[in-house]
Structures are given as C-alpha cells and as structure tokens.
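Justification of computing resources. Each target in the renewal requires a structure prediction run like the one illustrated here; the chain below, 111 residues long, is used simply to show the kind of job we budget for.
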Amino acid sequence: MDDMIRMKNTKFAAFETEIDTLKQTLSKHVKEKESLLTTLNGFKTEFKQRESKSIDKEIVLENKNKELENIVSQRIKPTLYDGNVLSKIHDVIPVVDEDVTPYKKFLNLRR
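Resulting structure tokens:
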C-alpha cells in the first residue's frame, strides 16, 4: 500500500510540476501578447497620424494644382480668342473669305 501511495504522490508531484511549468509558459505568453498589443496600438496610432498628414498634403497639392490650372487656362484663353494677342505672340497671316469681300460686293453692285 505504501508503494501505491508513493506512486500516487510521485504522479501528483509530476502533475504539480507540469502545472507550474504550464503556468509559467502561460504567463510568458500573456506578457508577450500584452507587449505585442502595445506595439500594435503604437503602430496604429502612428499610421493614423501619417495618414492624416498625407491626406492634408494631398488636399494642399490638389488645391495648388487647381490654382495652377486656373492660371494656365487664363493665360491660354486670350491667345486663343484675341486676335491682337495672337498677332503679338505669333506670325499671323490674314485670310479673307472670298465670298464676302467688300470688293466682290462692289462688283456685284455695279452690274
């Protein structure tokens, strides 16, 4: 009977040792998890800050782009529609529509 008690005590001690080992392992895993969660939260915060800055920069760049497009379109429009500006910037060759020339009108009136 003493042998049975010793065997049970030995098994019980082995179980206690295994339980202690498992508790230590669990404790290490919990600490590691907490550390990883802290790191993850730090990365999330940093990402949100960088994303916000990037969005702000993108908005500023889009506004500058619109301003520049407006400036360019305002500079281009006069050269397209204003003959005086065209003649100052480019060589202009006057083209006369032959159907409506004053000379032709004059000839038609004389007949």
